Amino acid sequence: RAKSQGGNCWVYYDHDDDERRRTAQRLRGELERALKQKEFVLYWQPIINLHTGQCVAAEALIRWQHPERGLLLPASFMDIAENSPAMLRIGAWVIQEACRQGNQWAEQGFLLDIQINLSARQIENHRLCEELRSNLNMCPALLPERVCLELVERIALRDIGKTSRLIQDCQSLGVSFALDDFGTGPAALQYLLELGCNQIKIDHTFVIPMTRSQRHQDMVRAMIQMAHALGVSVTAEGIEDEITLQLLQTSGADRGQGYRIARPMPAQEMATYLGKQK
Ligand code: C2E
Ligand code: MG
Ligand code: MG
Ligand code: MG
């Protein structure tokens, strides 16, 4: 592939790939240590009610505070983690830490939903529901109704029946589900119909072009109408400017998330943000 671009090109690419492979391998070997040394942290991104402007939820977004490489974003290590047996423990840690933090905020009187991303491995883990239950038991101030699990389409693809049973089991605990990156997967509509999710999160690749593309505006509006017709609520991701925010408000989206509202931030800053809202 790179070769067809001719010349020295492929040497360069080859080197690059090699470098990337070595880095990936090194990082994979460091996941266990990272867990043990508590190098993972959760950042939080506010989600607002688009009608009132109030912060009504926060999404937990993992970061790796790497001792040599600095703060790593999920893009640089989650694919690696996903292919490693450590992923189950990382996922379990995310749930535990997100619930603990949500419980603390609830004790402090902050009313908000806690949104947690699930990985493919967690979906396939038959103990997910049990894990969730025991975490909720340890977090009495955090109502199960305030916990929302986010799931990307592609990871549920293998077995819709199994995934929808898992969703039902967890929903019977009180938690809800969101279909994340909605619109990017190969089976978006089927999922919407069959999975029994409570919420969709419209992917930023539909939201960001809205200001300059009527077609994207129309598409987003259609998604919102379709979701609402099925009793599913809508969060728009990737709101980067004021005009997009207004377009989404007039399109009837329920909730919004994006840099225009707030960037993901450490828990301490999030608490300050919530304090200002009160
Ligand atoms: P996601 O769940 O779709 O999360 C939203 C991503 O969009 C976040 O990237 C967030 O920082 C970014 N974002 C927020 N506002 C804007 C905006 O206005 N414009 C643009 N262009 N982007 C915005 P982040 O934190 O790098 O996370 C990337 C992905 O990694 C997440 O996408 C999620 O799929 C995954 N991820 C993050 N934390 C976890 C986790 O704890 N567990 C699992 N399994 N996956 C996670
Ligand atoms: Mg998400
Ligand atoms: Mg998303
Ligand atoms: Mg995404």
TrEMBL record:
<feature type="domain" description="EAL">
    <location>
        <begin position="24"/>
        <end position="278"/>
    </location>
</feature>
<protein>
    <submittedName>
        <fullName>Bifunctional diguanylate cyclase/phosphodiesterase</fullName>
    </submittedName>
</protein>
